[in-house]
Amino acid sequence: MRVSCERSELLKGVRNAARAVSSRSTLPILANLFVEARDNVLRLIGTDLEVGIECTVPARVEEPGALTIPAKVFTQILSSLPGEEIDLAVEEANMALIRCGRSEYRLLGLPADEFPLLPQVGEEVVFSIDPTLLRDVIKETIFAASKDEARAILMGALFSIKGDTLRVVATDTHRLALS
What we know:
Elements: E1 2-6, H1 7-18, E2 32-38, E3 41-47, E4 52-58, E5 60-63, E6 65-70, H2 71-80, E7 85-91, E8 95-100, E9 103-108, H3 131-141, E10 158-162, E11 165-171, E12 176-178
Antiparallel strand pairs: 1-5, 1-7, 2-3, 2-6, 3-4, 7-8, 8-9, 10-11, 11-12
Helix pairs in contact: 1-2
C-alpha cells in the first residue's frame, strides 16, 4: 500500500474512527484502526465489537492495500506533524511508514485480514421519523433495558417497523416497556 493525503483530512478521519476503538480489550487488534486504500479513498474503521465507525478520506492511491495501525499512537503522531501532506506506506511484516516533510515514523501493525470488519447494512428497511418523536419513544422504553453486562442481549431495545408503525420494546426480564 502506498498513499498520500492531506494531514488535516486524515487526522479528522482518524479521530472519528478512533472513537470506537476500545481502550481495554482482550483482543489486541481492537486497539488498532483498519486502514484500506483503494479507488482514491482511504477507508478507516475502528470498532470495539459493539460499536463501529467507518470514515473515508480522499487520497491519492499509488498502490492499493490494507493494514492496521495502533489508533492511539497514530492519532498522536498525526496531531504532532507539522506538514500538510502525509505519505503512508506499508513495508514488510505489517510495518507502516508515515512520512511528512522531514519527519518519518514506523509503526508495527497487525495483519489487516485479522481485523473484524463491520457488518454490511442493507437497504431493506428505510424510514424517516421526527427526531423529537424518536427521542420520546426511546425515553419511554430505555428504562426497562437491562444494565447487566452478563445479559448483553437485554441491554438494548427492539425496533420493529410494520407499515407506517414503529414499535420499540425493551426488557430486563422484570420490567417490560412498549412504545
